[in-house]
Each structure stands twice: as C-alpha cells, then as structure tokens.
Amino acid sequence: MEFNFPDAFLVGSSTAGHQVEGNNVNSDFWAEEHAEGSPYREKSGDAVDHYRLYQQDIALMAELGWNAYRFSIEWSRIEPEPGEYSQSAIEHYRDMLESCHKAGLTPVVVMHHFTSPKWLMRLGGWASPELPERFAKYCEVVFRELGHLIPYALTMNEVNLPVMLKEIFATMGFTPPVGIDREAWKAPQWRESAARLCGTTADNYFTFHMASDEASVELIKEVHQEARKAIKTVSPDTRVGWSMALSDVQAVPGGEEWAARKWYQYFEQYVPAMEGDDFFGLQNYTREVYGPDGQIQPEGEVTQMGYEFYPEGLGNVIRKVSQVLSMPLIVTEHGVATTDDERRQTFIREGLKGLQDCLNEGIDIKGYLHWSTFDNFEWNSGYSKHFGLIAVDRKTQKRQPKESARLLGQIAGITSLVSG
Q: Coiled coil where (predicted)?
C-alpha cells in the first residue's frame, strides 16, 4: 500500500522522561523503585542516559529521517520542592526543544507522564484539592519560558489509565501498558515504604495510577482544564490536548453490554473535559474482545506484554473516536513489545494502513508517533520489554537503530516529499 499523508504530517517516536532520562531522584516513582518490598524488577538508574545524551539522540532521529519527537518534561526536575523552580532544568529542556527545531523535528511535549514530585505526596498526591492550581502553576512557569518552542502540548499522558488499571485488576484481564501486575497493585507494604521515602504516610500517598474513583476522575478533568487555561494564557499559539490509552473494544454476541460499559469507562466519561482542546492524543496497542462473561483472552499471537498482536486496532479506534470528537487527532503512541523486529515492522505497516484508510475517509489526523524511541525502562517490568525502534547497550549506552527505525524514516520521507 502506498502512503499519501497530508502536508506537515508528523512521523516520529515517543519517550517518557522517567523511562529514558535516568536518575529521576525527586519523583514518586523513584521512591517506589527503592521502597522496601518494591515490585519493580529493576531500578531505573541511569535508564538510557537520555538526559545527558539527548543531543546525539535527536541528531540520530533526524538522521533516520523522522520529522517529529514526543517527549515529556519532568515535573520533579522543574519543581523539586513546592514553589522552587530549577532554572537549570528549564534550560535543559530549552536546549532539547531548540535541538529538535534545528534538526527538523517538530517537538510534541507531555507535561506529565505518570511521575510526580515526591513533595506532592505530602499534600495528598493526586487526591489533593491543591493539585489543579499547583499543576497549572508548573505549566505556566514552563510555558512562560519555553512556550514559543512548543507547538503541541499534552497536559497529561493516558489520563484514563488509572481507570483501566482498576478495571483490569478487578477482572484479572490483560496487562495494562505500564506493566504493573495485580499483586503489586494490592500489596500495601511497599506503598507504606514508598510513602516514607516521599516524606509522608500511606494515608497521603496517592499516585497518578491510583486516581480511578469518581472523585479522582473529576479531579483529573479539572487538572487538565486548569493546565490548558494556564498554557493558552501565556502561549496562545501552542496547541493543547491530552492523551488516552484506547484499546479497540470489540464484542462477540452477548458481550455488547460489557463492551459498551468499558468504552464508556475508558473514553466517553472523559469527553466533556475536552471541550476547548485543540487536538486529541490517541494511543493504541491492541484490542479487547468481550463476550457474555466478560473479556475473552487472546488465542493467537501475543506480545511480550501479553497483548494480542493486533495492529488493525489503530484504524478502528481512530474511527470510533472521530465519531465523537470534532478536533484533529494525533497518534501519540502505537507500538509493540517484541524482540522480533520484523514483527515490529509489520505492526507499523499494518497500523499505518489503517490510519491511511482513515485519512482517505476524511478523518483529520495530524501525525503518527511510534512507541517507543528506545528499548527503555518499562516500569515494574524493568528492562525486559522491547518496544524500541533503537536498541541500547546499557553498559556502554551505545545506540543501535533497528530496521523498523529505518522503515519509519522511509515513511517520514514520504510526508517530506508530499509537503515539500
């Protein structure tokens, strides 16, 4: 199939600060990794040292032919203590952004990708009534300094993931994208230890991943709306949205009610908060199939994460979302955990075929960003999962692009020809 993307179509990859930067010592996730009895298989440590090596990494992305890069700004680096903002961290991200622009990569910035400052836990974490104002202030500080360099911003990554986690663990279904297992979610002891490392007690310790009850969902919506307002006030040209993890929810006969309920929980309940957004970040990895008794486990090929290998889900989810939202979409994550790079290439091709069909149908899609740039730290799975387009020898930190990385560059070259 030939791809025929519109002008200025973004093709590139995505990362998350904690997973690639290394030594994110002021964050709640660093505390979780180091907590007594932690379920994390490995500590993130230096990760892939992207905080130090970002310039060569951005140059490599450009060399591979990509034209966009989605990365996150780490809140705990910018604001290591409440109301104290690190100018050196701001300058670091300024140079990242300028490096992207010089290399011809459009930056897409995420302001929160799961991790929060330790100090936030002392205030009650993601249950704190102070959260919307404090997060908005962090966004205001960043965009007052850097907004002119940020054309696209996501306030938060996968705002619906806490609900997905709750549902998944409750039904013992498939593993969610961040790879936290059911037992780890339930175990209280290591959370008590993590709370102590954040300077608080378990009663106050409430991370982003725990924000799944009705009150928390409403608070997340408020956080988004206040952050969007703060960003647009100081940087009106920045296009603002958020992202969601959306499996292709399907039903076999008898499973229609299950599927409808899941789709409401995963997507529809969040729609009102998107009024006023400039775009929507759509993230897809697989499908979920429901029957009369709930989720049906996959019988065919599965990935390292236990997901069904189902790149066709991308086009299906784009269509479902576009029926509800009247705003542009960007695929901000789409990927597969596998050591077989030929299967990754197939996943990319098949996913983009579905995306191209959606474009042909008139759906407004601005880009495709693959997860992930590197084989990186995958939360409590450590470094055992391989999502990356670029392999990394973590002893030497040497980068080795895979054929899938070059394939993505070839596809990005198509959009360059169309745009140029």
A: none
What is the three-state SS of 1-16? CCCCCCCCCEEEEECC
Tell me how far apart the terminal alpha carbons of the chain are, to the nearest angstrom.
Answer: 21
Tell me what pLDDT residue 167 has: 65
The model's pTM is 0.95
Q: For residues 314-350, b (16+ Cβ closer than 10 Å) or e, as one string?
A: bbbbbebbbeebebbbbbbbbbbbbeebebbbbbbeb
Q: How many CB atoms within 10 Å of residue 122?
A: 17
Structure tokens at 330: 């960007």
Helix axes 131-146, 214-234, angle to 10 degrees: 30
Residues 6+ apart with CB under 8 A from 404: 341, 344, 345, 348, 389
Number of H helices, E strands in the chain: 15, 14
C-alpha closest to that of 263 among 167, 357, 331: 167
* Residue 418 pLDDT greater than 60, yes or no: no
Coil, strand or helix: which one is 302? strand
DSSP state of 297: P
How far apart CA 161 and CA 211 sit, in angstroms, is: 9
Confidence at residue 166, expressed as pLDDT on a 0 to 100 scale: 75
Hey, how many other C-beta atoms are within 10 angstroms of the C-beta on 189? 12
Task: Name which of 315, 35, 15, 367 is nearest 192 in CA terms.
Answer: 35
Lookup: tokens for 262 = 């899941």
Domain borders along the chain are 10-419
For residues 70-104, b (16+ Cβ closer than 10 Å) or e, as one string?
bbbbbbbbbbbeeeeeeeebbebbeebbebbeebe
Q: What is the per-residue pLDDT for 176?
A: 42
Which of 3.10.129.10, 3.20.20.80, 3.50.50.100, 2.60.40.420 is the CATH number of 10-419? Answer: 3.20.20.80
* Residue 98, amino acid: E
pLDDT digits (tens, 9 = 90+) for 387-406: 999 999 999 999 999 999 99
Distance, CA of 262 to CA of 117 (rounded, Å):
31
Q: Which two tokens stand for residue 309?
A: 């290998």
